[in-house]
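I am going through a labmate's work and have reached the protein record below. What it holds is a sequence and that sequence's fold in token form. Please read both lines and tell me whether the tokens look consistent with the sequence. Do not assume that whoever made the record got everything right. Thanks in advance; the entry in question is below.
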Amino acid sequence: MKDVVTIGDAMITFNPDTKGPMRFVSSFQRKVGGAELNVAIGCARLGLQTGWISRLGNDEFGRHILHFVRGEGIDTSQVKLVNGYPTSLYFKEIMEDGSGRSFYYRDNSPTLTMNVENFPFEYLDTTNVLHVSGVFPAIGGENYNIILKAVQYAREQGKIVSFDPNIRLKLWRSRDEMKEKLKRLLSYTDILLMGEEEGKLLFDTGNTDELYEKLKNYSIEWITITQGDRGATCYYKGEKYVGRPVKPAKVVDTVGAGDGFSAGFIYGVLQDWDIERILSFANTIGSMVVSVSGDNEGLPLLDEVMMRLGEKERIER
């Protein structure tokens, strides 16, 4: 039995060797990225049994991603290489303060070969948690219908559905389409992992209490709103919990911090921890991720998080 299964695209990430506007960067390092994949990697490094459903191009980049993911111990039995669809790419721009922008080249994504008819819904029977985000459905094709059917199926089977809106406006045809489709997914969500900026895009407010009032009608058990370097707030069974921020050693690259938080939160829920401990754990992972360049290079092992929390002594080798 798996702990977590995710559904999503993956890309080759080109990380700049120097900081500043991308037009002045002349060399890059090849990495692997993708929002839902990052969460799967984060969960696997914490020791959870994890699976990933996706499609990659039948090319050198696709094979590299597949080998990389297998090396993380993630089940890739539902990942296929397809002809005629190049593996997606994106280039990162990183500024001196760690902030940046992403430039996507993911038209004709291999995931467009997926549809409701060929999707392995029975694979979801093998997991406790299904994690999805707003990135995969924004790509187009049948992706949104797949995610909608998947969360409906998972809920019918008694699974926990985790959802991160992860809004990429560049990928959606319009804001109205984005709002309509992502709000519909909220009706099948048990764990909501939403940034306050996404709250503004979906509900026209980033205020946590106002967001909670707007979200109460969706019957979401864990409503979590991340607030960057101000920590995170969670509403659970009508109670409000505030997770204090964890100061990173150094901010190098902010990409992937939210995915690390999501992996940590899911882990805590599966351990049946209290909300305060879950928030502390997830915020700690987020702070560790931003200290390392790359989408998932900073996602820590469980022992590393426990050492950072002071719950485990470092073993000198």
Notes: Residues 2-308 form a domain with the UDP-N-acetylmuramoyl-L-alanine:D-glutamate ligase fold (CATH 3.40.1190.20). The chain has ten helices and 13 strands.
